[in-house]
Amino acid sequence: VDVPGPLGAEQGRLFYQRAGARVEALPGVMDVGWGRTLPLAGGSRRGFTPEGYVPRAGEDLELHYNIVSPAYFSALGVPLLAGRGFTREDEQAGRSAAVVVVNEILARRFFGGRAVGRRMTDSAGTALEIVGVAASGKFRTVTEEAPPVVYYPLGQLYSSRMSLIVRTAVPAERLADAVRREVRAASGEVPVSRLVTLSGHLE
């Protein structure tokens, strides 16, 4: 979905909450999460400075990042290997403590595998506390090695373009029309630009 600019971040976040709650209430839905970037759908990068890490000469510290809701990991079946995922408290805009989850490859590369409680500073100058470590996986393409990834909570870093991820207990195609209907019902101003099963997306 693409939230129109005039709605602004506050109304955009309310839309994400309402749409997610409406879809989660549908019979056959097991989990609902939001993510800015789906696996194998490109992605964005920004600079990060890991606490206590001395970079090699010429080392690229621009890393992939994603913006996700608390249920993103469970909806996609991505295990959390250490620490915790995001909570409702992390989703509160303006929260003083900025937190992130990183993947296992990042934790090993910069923190010797022990990343929970450590800090990174991003290119915006924000000091970020690492609260969890998620399993690594393909991010941009199937041919490359899994890269380091930083996950921000949606409540702390707003994005007007997000994907709703719905895990179902029934064939996903059966719920497609209902999911589209409930997302539109949450706000008639937000268009649903694409609806696809994960297997269809990967193909």
What does this structure look like?
By secondary structure, this protein is α+β, with helices and mostly antiparallel strands. The chain has five helices and nine strands, in the order αβββαββαββββαα. The strands form two sheets. Strands 2-3-8-5-7-6 form a six-stranded mixed barrel. A two-stranded antiparallel sheet has the order 1-9. Helix 1 packs antiparallel against helix 4. The mean pLDDT is 92.
Task: Tell me about the largest β-sheet.
Answer: 6 strands, mixed, barrel
As a whole number of angstroms, the C-alpha radius of gyration is 17 Å
- Total beta strand runs: 9
Order of helices and strands: HEEEHEEHEEEEHH
SS class: alpha+beta
What amount of the residues lies in strands? 25-35%
Mean pLDDT: 92
Shape: globular
Q: Briefly, what is this?
A:
Helix content is 23%, strand content 26%.
Give descriptors for this structure:
203 residues, alpha+beta, two-stranded antiparallel sheet
Task: Explain the layout of strands and helices.
Blueprint: H1 8-24, E1 29-35, E2 44-50, E3 62-68, H2 72-76, E4 80-83, E5 99-103, H3 104-111, E6 119-122, E7 127-134, E8 149-153, E9 163-168, H4 176-186, H5 198-202
Parallel strand pairs: 3-8, 5-7
Antiparallel strand pairs: 1-9, 2-3, 2-6, 4-7, 5-8, 6-7
